[in-house]
Model the fold of this input.
Amino acid sequence: MQKRPFRKWFYPLALASLVLLSACGSGGQTSSSGGGSQTQGEAAGEESKEPIRIGAIFSLTGANSPLGVPEKQAVELLAKELNEAGGIDGRPIEVFIEDDKSDNTEAVKAIRKLVSQHKIVAVLGSSGSGPSLAMAEFADGEGLPMISMAAADQVTNPVRPGIFKTPHTDVHGTKRIYKYLQEQGISKIAILNDSNPYGSGWTQQLHKYAPEYGITIVAEEKYGTQDPSMSSQLTKIKGTDAEALIFAGTNPGPATIVKEAKQLGLTIPLISSHGSANSKFLELVGDAGEGVLMVAGKLLVPDQVAPDDPQAAIIKKFVDGYKAAYNSEPDGFAGYGYDGLNLLVEGLKQAGGDASKLGEVLEGVTYVGVTGEFSFSPEDHNGLTEDSMIMVQVKDGKFEVLP
Done:
């Protein structure tokens, strides 16, 4: 891969420490840090070390808000913890957060704003594949390191300098589901995916890897993200000899699919992508969710992770901290944000705080996160494998790991 120097941003030294989670400007932007407040008199004769400015663009409103809100909360929590522990070599971390409203154009506007107004050294986001791909185009042109929370394989494939991601891809999810189907002796499937970039990515991978696992796709349907019903597509699928239905999308679509499939008397296994792997799915689907299968990361079932698992300690730490801060269980999307900021911090530490080296240094970072064990390389800017994914089943209104 051809190397390109990354832009190094310069900004004035801060003369007073940062204000924790203070609102700044318009458009839903917040500035997050963990430093305490300090008067000018107390700061006289002292210059605090300049902050490391990081941008974060999440879908805080719109269709992807169930993903973006927990991501934002996880990043704010970690930024506070890091700054209370001294930041990076004594430099506080300041995170500027923007809402892309689940819209590709808004995501580009947000990243332009963060670069021009705040001189960020890297950016996290976005929550969805469409906004992330739009952001990546701009970040690549700017030489700005970016870590996405979106699952589509296209975010990091083909590899571009400085563009990374934290979720398992649709490739990982496809392979893990197909491995399960092989074990169950299932070879004929139907697919029903969102027509957006996330769902389209799954459709592509399901077709690509089907021959490798002896799978035949006997029906292929799609739906619009805002569609209120998928009954016509499900009726077509019911008329085929499919032995299982795989569907990919983010809530509420997958929950609607499950409820309508049950109403139509579809009795084949229903298998969801990790796009709906959170408690919101359980809330939306209700009793109809019983028996539904899903591919997911281990964070979905933190109390079912083996104590000797390499991820066990960091999952417990994250879950305990998140619950204490927000009085709720973190989901996999929160984990994507948490891992993203941790990876940036690890890269900055290895770069000696020199942001101009961050993109290149990240290519050699290894890190055990709540999502999986990351091992970035010049050829792999996701660094995960399908082996860190699990298959779960909805049982009595909860997710339970399949043996």
Residues 65-84 form the longest helix (20 residues). The CA atoms of residues 16 and 270 lie 56 Å apart.
